[in-house]
Amino acid sequence: MRPDPTYKTIFGHAFMVEELMRWLVADLRGARELVDALDFSRLQRMHEQSVSSGAAALRGYANDMVWQAPFRGRDDDGDGEAWLYLVMMLEFQSEVDFRMALRIRNYVDNFHMERWRGRRSGSGDRLAPVLPVVLYTGESRWTAAVRVIDLVTPGASGSGASDLMWRSAPVFAGDGYVLLDAHRVRAEDLRHDNAAALLVGLEGLELETAEELFRAFHRRVNVPELGELRRVMLEWASRQARRRLGVELGDMVELNRLRDPDEIDAHYGTRVHAWKEEYRAAGRVEGRVEGRVEGLRESLRRYAEMKFDAETAARLGELLDGVADREVLDGMLAAVFESDTPEELLRRVS
């Protein structure tokens, strides 16, 4: 399954790349000094290279996105000295790729070879620093190795050499990437003044946090010069509301016109209040049927149809027949809201 292509559109904007660096790299990774040294006003999108130049069959393995930011106070004289800029490679994943560390190393190596193609080099020449970042939005935990060395030596204990020796010697492999596992980010790390953090927060959207996240998300991109980006991000947020909660965020034209902070707050406050009332009303009305749980089963079928389709609701109904334990049904309700596809929902309910 390919990741949401909207991510590539969103991070095709320099504003979002800077937001990501200031949150993920500076805040969460503690590299604030590095990020503060970059001149984001001169951030530049670069041509994405394939792993193997000229190999059409491998174009699917090209870098997802490459950006370059110069360091403050450094002026490139045209020779492209390595110490003048940092290269950021962004990769978007919705499934775990156990070869990601190897793919990243291929990207970095190929990038350097392409930049130096046709140029003579000497002992004083240096490579540009490259920071690979993997943005993962899958529901399951990311379990792939972050460094190539962890792919090279999974059974090092039987090799006659200590595992510590392998891991401490970069000559054996090289060397990793920064991972952002969207569904494992802690709530306290979701800065509400950073669009990249809020984007990740909406990946795990729940009804209890919806109003706060939507409001902060809209406020952060409520800048005149971000008109196109704001439209794309609000449409993405609307899809998240449908996908995660089975509700509608509102008319996109009207939503995109909201500029006044008070109007933004009022809109999302009203929306979320209405959603909560609908959920409660559905439980009360349907739950009165002769004191049984048939109402809750019907609510589950209805929510599944709202979020997916009638066929999924019918298949879910077959699985629910005979289930009378309210706690079990409550767990299935969570599965409806949290599942991304009909297949995932039916698998979890089974």
Explain what this protein looks like in three dimensions.
This protein has 350 residues and is an alpha/beta fold. The protein has two domains: 6-204, no CATH class; 287-349, no CATH class. Helices cover 49% and strands 8% of the residues. The chain has 15 helices and five strands. It has helices spanning 6-10, 14-28, 32-36, 100-116, 149-152, 163-167, 195-203, 207-220, 227-245, 252-257, 261-286, 294-307, 310-320, 326-338, 342-349, and strands at residues 44-46, 65-70, 85-93, 130-136, 178-181. A five-stranded mixed sheet has the order 1-2-3-4-5, covered by helices on one side. β3, α4 (100-116) and β4 (130-136) form a beta-alpha-beta unit. The longest helix has 26 residues, at 261-286. The radius of gyration is 24 Å and the shape is globular. The relative contact order is 0.08. Mean pLDDT is 80; it is low at 50-61, 77-82, 166-174 and 284-292.
Radius of gyration: 24 Å
End-to-end distance: 22 Å
**Structural shape:** globular
> How do the SSEs run, as a string of H and E?
HHHEEEHEHHEHHHHHHHHH
Q: Could you say how many structural domains there are in total? A: 2
Question: For the largest beta sheet, what order do the strands appear in spatially?
Answer: 1-2-3-4-5
Percent helix, as a range, is 40-55%
Biggest β-sheet strands, sense, barrel? 5 strands, mixed
Averaged pLDDT: 80
Strand content: 5-15%
Blueprint of the fold:
Layout lengths: L5 H5 L3 H15 L3 H5 L7 E3 L18 E6 L14 E9 L6 H17 L13 E7 L12 H4 L10 H5 L10 E4 L13 H9 L3 H14 L6 H19 L6 H6 L3 H26 L7 H14 L2 H11 L5 H13 L3 H8 L1
Parallel strand pairs: 3-4, 4-5
Antiparallel strand pairs: 1-2, 2-3
